[in-house]
Amino acid sequence: MDKILRIDMGAKGGPQVKVEGLGEYAGLGGRAMTSSVVFKEVPPLCHPLGAENKLVIAPGLLSGSSASMSGRISVGCKSPLTGGIKEANSGGQGAQVLARLGYAAVILEGKPEGDDLYKVFINRDGVKVEKDNSLKMLPNYDLVDKMKGVYGDKITCISIGPAGEMKLGAASVAITDIEGRPTRHAGRGGVGAVMGSKGVKVIVLDDTGLKNREPKDAEKFRAANKKFVEGLTTHAVTGQALPAYGTNVLTNIINEAGGYPSYNFKDGQFAGASKISGETFADIETKRGGNATHPCHRGCVIRCSGTYVDKDGHFVSKQPEYETVWAHGGDCGIDDPDAIAQIDFLDDNIGLDTIEMGATIGVAMQAGLVKFGDAAAAIGLIKEVGKGTPLGKILGSGAAVTGKVFGVEKVPVVKNQALPAYDPRAIQGIGVTYATSPMGADHTAGYAIATNILKNGGWVDPLKPEGQVELSRNLQIATAAIDSTGMCLFIAFAILDQPETNQALINLLNAFYGWNLTGDDVTALGKKVLKMERDFNAKAGFTKEQDRLPRFFTTEKVGPHNITFQVKDAELDSVFNW
Amino acid sequence: MRSSIRCSTGEHATGGVPGHAPVPTIAATAPMHITVKLFATLRRGRFDREILDCPGSTKVLDIVTRLAIPEKQAAIIFINSRHGGLDTELHEGDTLALFPPVGGG
Question: Chain B residues with CB inside 8 Å of A320's CB?
Fold first, then answer.
């Protein structure tokens, strides 16, 4: 991972490939890499779909090594959805394969004239960029099948569906999983639209003949990895609950806590929650011959994913994540697992962020476009997006645009990005993260649910404003660092509770790179990343007034706790004072 | 109606006159009905949801013990959608939800 690949899509005479050393980006990975490149190279006032924006794809620091859980990839740019900096993070095989190919980053630059579409093929021999207009408007699954036909079954694809080509605000970048299916997505912030604006439909990776990246100190690395894996497999969350039920184990608990936003954030509980819970999905998958425990990338020991099949045992989609089940389920008043799995597939195939699309349909339902609870109508709306009808393009532009077009007051977005699956009134810590993260409303940026609800890393009462700013601050710092390592964020459940597992992670980095990092250094890295991101946003025109939740969270109470968001504006403004 | 039962039960269960045995009133000994909801692995060999008859003075730990749930497995406890602990006193009509350690997101 000692080189950076730049592809100038706007070069005269066609795309120009340049491979260079790491230079000032040495020692960076994942989010630290993407945010550094965007911060240093992208003019904050540029149009996100213009030639000046860049799409940066970076494996984490430990990706491509034998370190368990190191398969996360970061996709960064100026976001067409938020207008600020964006890092969208995904599993799948992309990080491992790109890292083994030796690239610390792939940067798509410039903008082609005309509307030709390109594919990029990268293997050990080099990089080829070819025009291929036969790929136009292909959904992700068809696209990947076509690429397998050309390049063989062992490839990994990083691609956009029709949504990315149409440059919609909810467009994702898809990454293929172990089975070579485009099920993992850098979903948030419209990163797929930026890839579309560069005219790149797919990056095909083939690491045939390449081995894992070798650590500087193999013995110490092996020992650290052993300790790290032990910590993950013995912790009750990463060793038992996530493998058995996946992320959707949260439906019941968030619903029980009264923090499950249903009917477009009208209620804090949903009567149909148990029908779409992780327990129910796992039962269905097991009974029908699907799979409730499955890794999204090789080397994952948590295996929180799964395979959802229909009554006849045919593949429908990967096991939908909690956020997806909430967005397309409870938020829309839908309690049908089969419908939700079908929508999950449609989102993946069209190349859409499931959170943004679910929240958008919730807003459309609020507007009366279709009725809450009408699964068939919701499926119809997603198909509109895939077809690129005028209505589909409005919906595919996200909740904020849809709310404006249909005159809806209650639109759950921060910095134009839809809120995920936790009501910030009943879980106040996550509200601080939603409001202040440089990414817009994003639960992963500082997952206060862990400590507010799950009693992981201590407990801060979710119904009170006290302690939430400090909680969110510390989590945002830690997350920015973890997102730079290539590690799945779910390791946090174990490292928040077990200092020895946290130390094992630091030991992995030190043994791999020959560094002497301490815990304080890791914290400093997280702060550095956040500071760059905040600075970029400030130069892009963001002020503290954008670090706020939509007004209705402070004026409308939500049941069953009958509570509003209580954290004061001045406190929100202190999140980044460290 | 419900709150008056809750009130008298609570007084006798936790208070009473020091040095004296709690006065055995109907309210103190009257069985309570607690809706117990179990989730994830706690359901295995048990149930999803049941209404349990409990003595007038019952804490979360009493129910956890009665259901043979190891204390560590009752990691997240909600009583009427609010976090509680093993020591939390229950009242007539309460809903108790028990979760093992879980995470996701």
Answer: none
- C-beta atoms of A237 and B76 within 8 A: no
Which pLDDT tens digit goes with each residue over A173-223? 999 999 999 999 999 999 999 999 999 999 999 999 999 999 999 999 999
Name the pTM for this structure: 0.94
Two tokens at A256? Answer: 């029980």
Which residue do the tokens 């009242």 mark?
B91
Q: Which residue of B has its CA nearest to A452?
A: B83
This complex has an ipTM of 0.92
3-state SS string over A364-381? HHHCCCCCCCCHHHHHHH
The alpha-carbon gap from A253 to the nearest alpha carbon of chain B, in Å, equals 8
C-alpha gyration radius of chain B:
15
B104 → closest Cβ in A242, A459, A463: A242
Number of H helices and E strands in chain A, helices first, is 24, 17
Asked if residue B73 lies in contact with residue B96, where contact means CB atoms within 8 angstroms, the answer is no
Q: How many CA atoms lie within 13 A of A293 on its CB side?
A: 9
Q: What is the 3-state secondary structure (H, E, C) of A404-466?
A: HHCCCCCCCEECCEECCCCCCCCCHHHHHHHHHCCCCCCCHHHCCHHHHCCCCCCCCCCCCCC
The helix or strand, by DSSP H or E, that contains position A291, with its residue range, turns out to be strand A291-294
